[in-house]
Design goal:
mainly beta, seven-stranded mixed β-sheet, iron
Length: 242
């Protein structure tokens, strides 16, 4: 088990847009700022009249994982959508896409930058209306490369989430030695073995240990194929040590 504490993240922003950036490879002593197919994870607080103006992406798979609040998305494909904690978006930027975001209500979210299996894929933007805001005590597939993924990633990784009530215990879903499990604690806290994982912490699990909630907790799980092919040159998701 490897743990990356919230205090190890890079903090930027102001009163309307505050972001804590996780470059997981940096905290693991690697020569890559990312960790396998994960380029970076931004834990953002975004308040009206906050605006992230139109800007480009290339070869990034960008999942806007919203847990509270509302924001407006616009992009260079002509789409304009109102996003919230049950209506989420994944941008497959491929050969190039631009977008802007503005806050309608106070937003807390993850902007997750994944690495595609190859560069210069066709750009596209996906949206999905989830039936429930939270998946209570059951892992839910939210994005990935499986056929049943609500939002499709173009890399061999699947992303799950769960809201775990206090004292509930769960195991990693569909444990498989071919995958590495990376867990991000969005809210609350869990106990794994003798370790306490708190809000903003991440943990890499290479053994099948149960997770017990010490309080109501929201978790995001990345199941990464160990031999997944991925690009290290994405505009935001790429290796910043290059």
């Amino acid at each position: 088990m490897k743990i990356i504490r919230a205090s190890e993240k890079h903090t930027h922003g102001n009163q309307t847009f505050h972001v804590e950036i996780l470059y997981p490879g940096t905290n693991l002593g690697k020569n890559d700022t990312g960790f396998l197919t994960i380029g970076r994870i931004d834990h953002a607080l975004f308040k009206p009249p906050g605006l992230v103006p139109m800007h480009p992406h290339q070869d990034d798979e960008i999942f806007s994982y919203i847990r509270s609040g509302k924001m407006i998305h616009m992009d260079s494909t002509g789409k304009k959508e109102h996003l919230n904690n049950s209506y989420m978006m994944l941008m497959n930027s491929g050969s190039g896409i631009s977008h802007e975001e503005s806050a309608e209500e106070d937003v807390e979210m993850l902007q997750i930058f994944m690495r595609p299996s190859e560069n210069d894929l066709p750009p596209q933007v996906q949206f999905h209306q989830f039936e429930n805001v939270f998946s209570e005590n059951i892992w839910r597939l939210v994005a990935g490369n499986r056929a049943d993924s609500p939002l499709k990633l173009r890399v061999e990784t699947n992303i799950f989430d769960i809201r775990l009530q206090k004292d509930k215990v769960v195991e990693i879903p569909e444990w498989n030695e071919e995958f590495i499990n990376f867990i991000y604690c969005f809210n609350g806290g869990i106990k794994i073995g003798n370790e306490i994982i708190a809000k903003g912490d991440s943990v890499i699990l290479e053994e099948n240990l149960p997770l017990k909630a010490t309080t109501e907790s929201d978790l995001v799980l990345f199941q990464i194929k160990k031999d997944a092919k991925y690009s290290e040159t994405g505009m935001f998701s790429g290796n910043k040590f290059h």
